[in-house]
C-alpha cells in the first residue's frame, strides 16, 4: 500500500490562520481598517529605520511579520477544552503557559496554543489565547447549574471536524484533501452566531453574574473574539487609531516604550455591540458585545531573572499609581512606568551580560571565513566579531496585560473579587495534559542556536 503524503501541520496552521483572518475581516469590518493601519505603520518603520529592517531580515522575522497574528477564544467545559487541544494539535499547536485571570476579577484561567519550535514558528507563528470559564466561581448555585446544563447540551465541533481529528491521530497526519476539509470544518467552531441559545431573561441573569459568563454560555460556540496583528511600532498605531475611527483603550499594556523592546505591548479597542436573537424572540432584538480589536508589538523573551525584574518594576509602578490604569490617570501611569523601568537595561549587550533576555546567535561573515575558532569561548567569539546576537522574540502572553485587555472590553463593572485563586492542576486536568513551560522553550532555542554556530565554525 502506498503511503499518502501528509500535509505538514505547520502548513495547515498557516492556512488556518489565513482562513480565520479572512473570516474575521468579513465579520468585523473594523478589523480590516486596523490591518491596513498596521501594514502602513510597519512599512513606514521598515523604511525609516534601517536598523530594524536589518534585524528582522537577519532573524527571518520579516517573512512572518505579515502572517503574524493571535486570536482568543473562551470555552465553557473541560470536554470542550480537551477537544480543542486535539484540534490544535493537528495544526502543530501545543498548550504553552498557564495564566490565571481570577486575581484580576475575570473568572477564567487560560493557556496559549502555539507552535513550539523556532522552525515551526517561522512557517506560522499563529497563536490562540484560550480561556476556560471557571463555573465553580458562580456563587448562585441555581444559575451555576443552569449554565452547566446549557453548556452540556451544545456541541462546538462539526461531526466532520471530529472525524478528521480522529483521522489525524490514528493515521499520523492529513492528506491534502483532508487538510483542506479540516481547515474549513475547524473554522466553523470559531464563527460568530447571531442566534443565542438562551432566552433574553436567561441572558440577563448570566450577564448580571459576569458579562464573560454570558459570552461563553449563551452562544453556540467559542466565537473568535479578536484577532491581533503584530505592529513594529505600537505607539504610532495607538496615536493614529482615532483618525481611523477606532477608539483605543486608555493605556498600552506591558512594558513602556524602549530602544530594545521587551516582551509584549498591547492595546485594544472596545467590543462592538452586535444584534442577537434570543430563543424567545423571532428576530434579532437583543444585543451582545464580545468581539473587539487589538494590536501588539513583540520584543525580547526574558529569562526568569529578566521576568522577575519586569514583574517587580510593573508592580512598583502600579502600586504607586494606586488604581487600575484608566483615562483619568493614563499620563501619570505612563510617567511612572518610564520612571520605574529606567532600572531595566535598554541595550542588547546590557540585557545579555545581565542574563535578562534570551538570544539567538549567528555566525558573522568574518566567522564563516576564519580558521580554527572552536577553542574560543562564546564571549570571545562575540567580542572578536565572529558571532553576533539578536534577541529571541517573545511568543507568549502576559497575565496582567491579558487582564487589562479583558477588562477594557468587558467594562469596569466586570471587576469582581474572587476568593479562590490559581488552580493550574484543575486546568491541566480539564485540558487532558500538562501545559508546556515557555521559559524552557526559549532556553532550548537559544541552546540550539549556539550549537549551530559551533557546528558552522571550524
Ligand atoms: C482574551 C484577553 C487576553 C491577550 O492578548 O492578552 C488577550 C480574551 O478576551 O478572551 O487577548
Ligand atoms: Ni489578545
TrEMBL record:
Pfam families: HGLS. This is 2-oxoadipate dioxygenase/decarboxylase. Keywords: Dioxygenase, Iron, Oxidoreductase. Belongs to the 2-oxoadipate dioxygenase/decarboxylase family. It comes from the Bacteria. The keyword Transferase does not apply. InterPro entries: HGLS, YdcJ_bac-like. Its EC number is 1.13.11.93. Its cofactor is Fe(2+). It comes from Pseudomonas migulae.
